[in-house]
Write a structure and sequence with these properties.
Blueprint: E1 4-10, H1 17-27, H2 33-42, H3 61-66, E2 73-78, E3 83-88, H4 96-103, E4 108-114, H5 121-132, E5 137-143, H6 152-165, E6 170-175, H7 199-205, E7 218-220, E8 223-228, E9 231-237, E10 242-244, E11 248-252, E12 256-265, E13 268-270, E14 272-274, E15 278-283, E16 294-296, E17 301-312, E18 324-328, E19 331-337, E20 346-359, H8 366-369, E21 370-375, E22 380-390, H9 395-398, H10 402-411, H11 416-431
Helix pairs in contact: 10-11
């Protein structure tokens, strides 16, 4: 079992997310005495009892005034069995982009639903976004069960709807009352028809595969380091995989091969490094590599066209064929999309970039499978995309012939002299 679990909450406004998280932190002793004292003094909802648990996470003054969560609030807590990083995300439709941000790094999503209201549009939107972002484990927390007299039929109806919506994922529904603590930390005797573990017990025991270090190597180059004539290293973060000294690698888009000579860090050289470490790789050969290139040990997609699932987060609609700035891994280019989307729409679109990208399907690699679209006039992050498939009509781009490969090498050179030398070496490789 992993020692650290990343969790996010999701659901509509007033479903009780912040209260649930506050209760979870309080009952698991995840808050300090001075925080408890401060919350006791500030508690606004005296009908909820001596403590308003939502105040443990609603940190912004505007949040407290409005009684809603606006930003993503991150909390760290631990039990004897596991450590947790928890993202309390906003439920209001206006802040859907913040929910997507909180869910982007989560292993498990807690989807809250008010038992009185059932599954709302925002509940479905959050579930779909979390699924698109690759979350495979869901705790469906049917909250406020005390207000429907712990009706089993109500719970099972909501659980069934989520099970159908999240087909293919691991879904664990649980009836609870965040306000009263039923089935949050300990199992409640007010739900004798429910024999599963409490929410905390589920979070402590859920098995989550976090195998980034076991995947194929993905190392986007962020910076080329050349402090003197004797050193040329490529700095960046390993997004996936493991690299060892002596390993064969391929640099994209030049499709040139070499081996790792050194793995350099601030604290000295390493024999092996793995995701998510930040290192500098020194290769045995001087390849034509620059910022935005990717070092791998397997094939990776390469091209200007692909389909993606796009979450649009700008009040201005996504306009087809308008140029946006696309940020992907350590590189940036411009791109246009073929479909019009409105605020909070989620759609399958075709993206065409000005410069060829080196990418993966999001389902295979999160780090090289996602991108954001930026509105160029405001620098506002307007859309978040998850790459679904390369376009078939770019097959020729992905398997270049010799002439195209040499042309790519020449295009990626930093000077005319480098281009001539790179082409010369490429021709030698082909002829020997």
């Amino acid at each position: 079992m992993s020692g650290l679990l990343r969790i996010c909450t999701a659901g509509s406004v007033d479903d009780g997310k912040s209260t649930l998280i506050g209760r979870l932190l309080y009952d698991s002793r995840g808050v300090y005495e001075d925080q408890i004292s401060s919350v006791e003094k500030a508690s606004r909802n005296r009908t909820a009892g001596p403590i308003d648990f939502s105040l443990f996470t609603d940190g912004l003054r505007a949040e407290r005034e409005q009684g809603i969560t606006i930003d993503v609030a991150y909390r760290y807590f631990a039990t004897a069995r596991r450590k947790f990083i928890l993202a309390d995300t906003p439920g209001h439709e206006q802040y859907t982009r913040n929910m997507a941000t909180g869910a982007s790094t989560a292993d498990v999503a807690i989807l809250l639903v008010d038992a009185r209201h059932g599954v709302l549009d925002q509940s479905r939107r959050h579930a779909r976004i979390a699924r698109l972002l690759g979350i495979r484990h869901f705790a469906v927390a049917v909250n406020k069960m005390d207000l429907v007299d712990f009706d089993r039929d109500v719970f099972e109806g909501i659980a069934s709807e989520f099970a159908e919506m999240l087909a293919g994922a691991a879904v664990y529904p649980i009836p609870l009352s965040a306000l009263n603590g039923d089935n949050v930390i300990t199992r409640s005797d007010r739900t004798p028809w429910f024999d599963g573990p409490s929410l905390l017990e589920y979070l402590e025991t859920v098995e989550v595969a976090r195998d980034a270090a076991d995947k194929a190597l993905r190392f986007p180059v962020q910076l080329v380091l050349r402090p003197d004539q004797d050193f040329r290293g490529y700095a960046g973060q390993i997004l996936a995989g493991t690299v060892r000294v002596g390993d064969p690698i391929t640099a994209w888009p030049s499709v040139r091969s070499s081996r790792v000579r050194r793995i350099v860090t601030w604290d000295g050289d390493l024999d092996v490094a793995f995701a998510p470490m930040s290192v500098t790789l020194v290769l045995e050969d001087e390849l034509d590599i620059s910022r935005g290139d990717v070092i791998t040990n397997t094939h990776i997609e390469f091209g200007k066209r692909f389909t993606a699932d796009l979450v649009w987060m700008d009040e201005r609609p996504l306009e087809p064929h308008r140029l946006y700035v696309l940020k992907h891994a350590s590189g940036t280019t411009t791109a246009q999309v073929d479909t019009r989307l409105l605020l909070n729409d989620i759609g399958r679109v075709t993206v065409e970039t000005s410069r060829a990208l080196i990418y993966d399907r999001y389902a295979d690699h999160r780090g090289t499978g996602c991108f954001v679209l930026i509105e160029p006039t405001t620098n506002f992050t307007a859309g978040a995309g998850m790459i679904a498939e390369p376009r078939l009509d770019q097959a020729a781009d992905q398997h270049p012939g010799s002439a195209e490969r040499i042309a790519r090498i020449a295009r990626t050179a930093h000077s005319e002299g480098e281009a001539i030398e790179a082409v010369r070496r490429a021709l030698e490789e082909l002829l020997t």
